[in-house]
């Protein structure tokens, strides 16, 4: 738009007109003695009040304020946000649906490192092993809380921002949706030819009321909300689409809340139980234990669980899967608190045992040789079952026995168990089957300071041989002692004897208590249901307009409008028109349908 320079008072650069913008007009004054120039000036002043300050025809502020430069030329005054304005802007950005989706994506990405490196909350031994294997990388990962991903500052920040964003999205939309559900469908448009799927029919008869009543019956049979406006009907359906959308986002909030509560009031622990031994549900009874911030020592429900037997079935017929486990079944005896009654139960993989609000899972199994070590005088200095950790699918296992007292020296033993002994071409021993068909136990015996008197916790599954002396084993003065069940061999240097009494099985149990587990499941189902409704339920409006023709017939128009993507809208309008025509034909006995006409959207 080119600048106007023909109005009074124009002093824009480049204007060569006189200040009045026109030649003086001599003539009679108005009723109040006002000349035509005065009237024009007043009209221009009134128009100036309706123009924004940056309009090309607006008056120029020569004072230099509000964006005018030093030369007195025009400047656009940009809006300035104060602290409150910036807070409002940040809140609008945070509570937008786009931000919520980005935060949901970031949360999923942020959870990935927790599956790549061991976590202190679930695998503290794995963290220690990672330190031994990657001493240079460990400090870097630890500095960014990589071993505490799910309780880290950055993961919690994303979690809380997502929670706030979803709340800010859901609440206003819920209010708006509630108001929309209570409101009537909008009035019928004056020009239905602008709508989608227009159909025109000419029907016999002149009863407008009957035509409208028939249309209302058809629409209500399809669960439309119908309102009559004069000689037309306005119908709407598909509110379930937005309802499903709100349920989806509201359920996400519910999952976040439930997970937060479950993380605060729940606990998780692991215990290795040897056949014939018992486990009592208290903090000291666990091998590893992780609890929420609000879990106290008295929170745990006391009960006693004894492992009576562990049956494992292996594949023996399929040559390609020999030794593959087919079934694990742990038979246990459970004693409830304040009761002398016991009950027999079974635990299987993916079939946990529910006891006093906790779930007991069977995670794994292995062998626990029962060893008895005596000094040279025959006094028992060690006796018990030692769980050996499986190293492969054939259950070749390793275990550690530590004897700090009772012998002339502290003794540490590394045991290698072969459930079904076989000899490789290289001469090395191996296990060919996971069951105890031909078991053999070999021992590597060390002497020296075991480091148990330093006050530093030591793993029962590891033996630090740095300051120890190898007395028997590979590359040792004496060969490694070999034992079969029931056998007794001498320890080197006259330290005593060791007996393999039996080889028992152990079960690795996980005890999990999550008070919000059912809520998380319910919200997860609602998430899927809401998502399905928001994706597959169409939101549409249909209209019916009836006019009485001059020739005694009815002119009927049908049209629709989709609220979003609805590829079947034309089909819905066509079906509505056909059913309405059929009902009118059956009621009047003279109904006939004219040729349908479809108009494109304009």
Automatic annotation (TrEMBL):
It is a multi-pass membrane protein. It is found in: Membrane. Keywords: Cytochrome c-type biogenesis, Membrane, Transmembrane, Transmembrane helix. Pfam families: ResB (PF05140). It comes from the Bacteria. Residues 1-74, 577-602 are annotated as: Disordered. InterPro entries: Cyt_c_bgen_Ccs1/CcsB/ResB, ResB-like_domain. Residues 97-573 form the ResB-like domain. GO terms for cellular component: membrane. GO terms for biological process: cytochrome complex assembly. The chain crosses the membrane at residues 99-117, 153-172, 246-267, 518-538. Residues 1-20, 39-58 have a biased composition (Basic and acidic residues). This is Cytochrome c biogenesis protein ResB. It comes from Naasia lichenicola.
């Amino acid at each position: 738009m080119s600048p106007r320079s023909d109005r009074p008072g124009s002093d824009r650069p480049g204007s060569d007109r006189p200040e009045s913008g026109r030649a003086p007009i001599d003539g009679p004054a108005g009723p109040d003695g006002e000349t035509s120039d005065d009237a024009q000036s007043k009209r221009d002043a009134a128009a100036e009040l309706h123009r924004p300050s940056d309009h090309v025809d607006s008056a120029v502020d020569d004072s230099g304020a509000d964006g005018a430069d030093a030369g007195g030329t025009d400047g656009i005054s940009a809006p300035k946000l104060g602290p409150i304005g910036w807070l409002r802007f940040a809140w609008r950005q945070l509570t937008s649906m786009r931000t919520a989706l980005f935060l949901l994506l970031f949360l999923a990405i942020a959870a990935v490192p927790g599956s790549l490196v061991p976590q202190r909350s679930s695998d503290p031994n794995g963290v220690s092993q990672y330190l031994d294997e990657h001493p240079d990388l460990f400090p870097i990962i630890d500095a960014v809380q990589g071993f505490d991903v799910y309780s880290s500052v950055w993961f919690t920040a994303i979690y809380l921002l997502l929670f706030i964003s979803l709340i800010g999205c859901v609440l206003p939309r819920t209010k708006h949706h509630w108001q929309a559900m209570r409101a009537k469908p909008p009035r019928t448009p004056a020009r239905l030819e602008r709508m989608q799927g227009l159909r025109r029919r000419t029907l016999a008869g002149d009863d407008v009321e009957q035509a409208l009543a028939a249309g209302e019956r058809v629409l209500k049979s399809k669960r439309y909300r119908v309102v009559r406006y004069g000689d037309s009907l306005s119908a709407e359906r598909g509110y379930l689409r937005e309802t499903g959308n709100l349920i989806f986002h509201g359920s996400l909030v519910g999952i976040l809340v439930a997970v937060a509560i479950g993380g605060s009031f729940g606990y998780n622990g692991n215990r290795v139980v040897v056949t014939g031994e018992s486990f009592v549900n208290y903090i000291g009874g666990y091998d590893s234990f992780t609890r929420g911030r609000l879990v106290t020592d008295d929170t745990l429900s006391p009960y006693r669980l004894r492992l009576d037997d562990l049956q494992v079935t292996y594949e023996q017929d399929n040559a390609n899967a020999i030794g593959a486990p087919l079934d694990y079944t742990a038979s246990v005896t459970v004693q409830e608190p304040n009761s002398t009654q016991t009950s027999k139960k079974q635990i299987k993989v993916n079939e946990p045992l529910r006891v006093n609000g906790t779930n007991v899972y069977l995670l794994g199994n292995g062998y626990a040789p029962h060893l008895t070590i005596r000094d040279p005088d025959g006094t028992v200095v060690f006796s018990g079952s030692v769980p050996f950790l499986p190293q492969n699918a054939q259950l070749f296992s390793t275990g550690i026995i530590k004897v700090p007292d009772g012998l002339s020296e502290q003794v540490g033993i590394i045991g290698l168990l072969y459930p079904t002994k076989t000899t490789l071409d290289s001469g090395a021993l191996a296990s060919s089957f996971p069951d105890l068909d031909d078991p053999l136990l070999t021992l590597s015996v060390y002497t020296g300071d075991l480091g148990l008197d330093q006050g530093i916790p030591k793993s029962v599954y590891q033996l630090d041989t740095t300051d120890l002396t190898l007395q028997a084993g590979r590359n040792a003065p004496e060969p490694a002692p070999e034992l079969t069940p029931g056998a007794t061999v001498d320890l080197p240097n006259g330290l005593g004897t060791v007996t393999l009494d039996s080889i028992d099985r152990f079960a690795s149990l996980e005890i999990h208590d999550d008070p919000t587990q059912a809520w998380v499941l319910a919200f997860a189902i609602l998430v899927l249901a809401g998502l399905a409704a928001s994706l597959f339920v169409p939101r549409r409006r249909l209209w019916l307009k009836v006019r009485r023709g001059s020739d005694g017939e009815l002119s009927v128009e049908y049209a629709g409008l989709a609220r979003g993507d609805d590829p079947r809208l034309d089909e819905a309008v066509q079906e509505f028109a056909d059913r309405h025509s059929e009902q009118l034909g059956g009621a009047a006995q003279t109904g006939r349908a004219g040729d349908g006409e479809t108009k494109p959207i304009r």
